[in-house]
Every structure is written in C-alpha cells, then in structure tokens.
C-alpha cells in the first residue's frame, strides 16, 4: 500500500486490518451506530496517513480540506436524502454542518439561524466541541440579530449561559454590547481578535468580521441620538476624537452608517432613513411593476 507520505508501515497495516474486522463484525452482529463508528475509524486511519482520496471514499472530509465545492454538493445530497426519510438526530447534525459551511462562506445570518436552532440538540462533536460551537453561535449572532432577538435568543439562552463563561472575553463581549458598555465592549473585542484570527474557519473573514462588528456597535450608539458630539462618542468608547473621526468617516463613505460629521462644530448628526417613507417608496415601485406586467398581459390577450 502506498500513500503520499511513503510506504505504510507494519503498525499501520495492523491498525487497518483491525479496523476492517471491526467493520465486518459491526455489520454482522451490531447496530447501525456501531457500523457508522467503525467506518468513521477507517476514515480517520486514512486521514492519519494522509491519503485524501481513500479518506473521501469513507467520509466527506470537505471541511478538513476546506473544499467548499464538495461541502455544498454534500449538503445538497444530504438534504435530498432526508426528503426520502431520515431521523431527527441526523437532521439536527446536518444543520450544524450547513451552519459551519455558511459561516465559512461569509453567510453569517444563515449560519446564526442554523446554529441557534441546534443549541439544545448539538451532538456534532466530530466537528468541534460544544464550547467552540457556542463561540461560533455568539459571534455570528452579534452581527446578524437585532437587539431584541439577541437578548431573547443569545443573552438569556440557558445553554449559552452555562458555557460562555469558559471562553475568555466572550461573555463580556456579548453582554457589554447589549448593556451599551462600550469601553468594556472594545476591551473584550480586542481580547477576542486573536482567537478569531487563529480560527481556521473565521480567519479568511477576519477583516470583514471586524468591520461588521464595528458597524453594529457604532449604529447602536448613534441610534439613541439625533445629534451627539464626537468627543462624547470618543469618551463612551474610550478612544481618541481623532480615532472616532477617522473610523466614522470610512463607515459613512461606505454607506454603513447613516450620519454626517459636522467637523466645525465637532458634532455627529444622524440621518437615518424614514422606515415609513422607505415602505411607501417600495410599494410605489412594486405597484408600477405590477401595472407594467398587467399592460403587457392585456396586449397578449388582445392578440
């Protein structure tokens, strides 16, 4: 037997032989879960010796190899199989797999929804431990949920409360945001950045996530004011006036924040869009679209 690292030694051959015997025994004498565990052991053997192709024959290891095309195809295949029938445990496990895929492909909103649906049914320990799952759930929820939903689904969630204290900075990060303790939030945020940067799934989106979090916290602060001095905001966040001025300038020009800076007066003036006016404009636009469709249809009928 050959593999990418060279010739498989006698010890590896003995391990493989033992695993094959375990699979045969499970298929003949044991239940479905034992068969699945035996095949998983075979997959892990091929992972250990670095044989990707044979490992993939046993298990879809797309996450291990960060093969997003394979991940997407595997999730779609699993969903199609569940339409033919499947137990609740496997459906719940699939939610975590899909949530991890969404997070890894920067769809944080869907990832948060899937993770939150799986909090009380999590059993996907082959991907990561429960502490890591809660870490991902909190991070994705913070930039995806409104303040009311965040309180109900995350801040007060019993499953999260039992674990969040074990993860350094995470509890302070979540609660200081909800409690509007912006100095504490920035401090916890700085503490978490290294964990986010080193995470294999979040690392590619590090800069994007950092911008999204800052957008959330700045928007939350400005929501309470029609106008506020730059100095007051800087003091609330524990940073300098120049830092806030530079930060907000970037976010305003990118369309992330609805406010303007009066540099002479040193004041921030919010100009949040009117929700009712936006709804009115959307209704008019949809109405025009519908009328155009009706006119085209009437011409076809006349013919």
UniProtKB/TrEMBL annotation:
Tagged with keyword DNA repair: no
Gene3D superfamilies (alphabetical): 1.25.40.570
Pfam families recorded: PCI, RPN7, RPN7_PSMD6_C
Signal peptide: 1-26
PROSITE patterns: PCI
Keywords, ordered alphabetically: Proteasome, Signal
GO biological process: proteasome-mediated ubiquitin-dependent protein catabolic process
Domain PCI: 107-275
Gene Ontology cellular-component annotations: proteasome complex
InterPro entries documented for this protein: PCI_dom, Rpn7/CSN1, Rpn7_N, RPN7_PSMD6_C, WH_DNA-bd_sf
Homology family: Belongs to the proteasome subunit S10 family.
Function: Acts as a regulatory subunit of the 26S proteasome which is involved in the ATP-dependent degradation of ubiquitinated proteins.
Identification of the protein by name: 26S proteasome regulatory subunit RPN7
